[in-house]
Task: structure prediction
Amino acid sequence: MNKGKNLRKIIFIFFSITLFISFHYDENSSGGSEYDYSIISEFILLFSKDITEGLLIYSPINNPHLPFFYIFLGKLFIFFDLNLLRLLYLSISLTLPIIIYKILKLKFKNYNKNILFSISVLIFLSPYFRSSAVWLTNDNLTLIFFCFSIYYFYKSDKLKSNNFTDILKCFLFLFLSVYLRQNFILFIIYYYYYLFTNNNNFRKFLTISLINLIFTIPILYYLFHYEHIYYYLKLNQSMKLDYSFNFLIFLNILLFYMIPFIISKSVAKILLFNLKNNLKIIFFLVFFVLFINYNVTDYLTADHGYGGGVFYKLFFKIINIPELFILFSIISLVLLFCLIKVDYPNYILILILFFLYSLPIIYQKYYDPLFLIMFFSLLTLNKNINIKLFNYKYLTIPFIYFFCFYLFTLSHYQ
Result:
């Protein structure tokens, strides 16, 4: 028992050191974090002088996120310079894999802790996690708050616990993530599904709803008082969103993260079994993707060539075989159906993940490492798949796969 615990500490310290090395060399493996920091630093300086004046100047045109993160950093800037703030933020980012590990221990109580820990440290191979830690972007802190929310979601036994404090903490941390990235409010739909179905106490339901309303007051006040709500409404009207194309991109991005967990004979057998037993549904899924593809009006993400994810760039920009992009969309949706348990919460979660970024251009960084976290936390996988995934020999491939991806992004952007 102690040997396993000591080994986990050594592995965590090793990966933590690699992150501090990345900080020393200003790693920018995500490609855009260093540029984002140049904008963030201006907001920090703005709010360090005067919050009221800063709010009058702050515009969603320059940054679509709520200003609370930059206000907080602006106040810290009084005591720390920007480099120390970056170092402090990197140290806080190190808590993300720890929280993920705690979630996995709650969800998979009878599984090997060393394997659960190994899954949690996969986050260290995410170029987007590492770049956010180095360049002070709000991505990591958003995920930290959100993972705390998931932790209390399971600790409250999916919101039906008699311990009201755990339920309250679940929603509190969700709203803390919303204060950083307002689109995370969509996850409240998932929580309310469980709250409504697993809790017959109407008084408790009403109390939680009123408290949640109180949590939203600062956000609503900011949006209406500074008239930013009108900007977002106009933006939604003016944005040319092709949901059909975005859904195909979304499926290809998900497939990129599912691939390393299905490359084994045992998992392939289970997937093939599920495939054979659901041929009618599989046929419908294939038809569904082809129908969506038929409605795509334009296969270009943007003139500057950014966005779309790895497979989009590969099939459109490099080898120029668009048909593979459609094929991979079909494979992704079929695999997803065969991997996850067939139930409403899973379907709700997939829809939330898709609509989480209703933007003209979808970037892969939006779902990295978010989808990996969802894959092992909120999503419920097929029981037989779980047995195979939580095995040492099946974790070797994901480590190699994501390490190669990290090396590629590092050499490409650095």
Observations:
- The two ends are 41 Å apart (CA to CA).
- The mean pLDDT is 90.
- The first helix runs from residue 2 to 24.
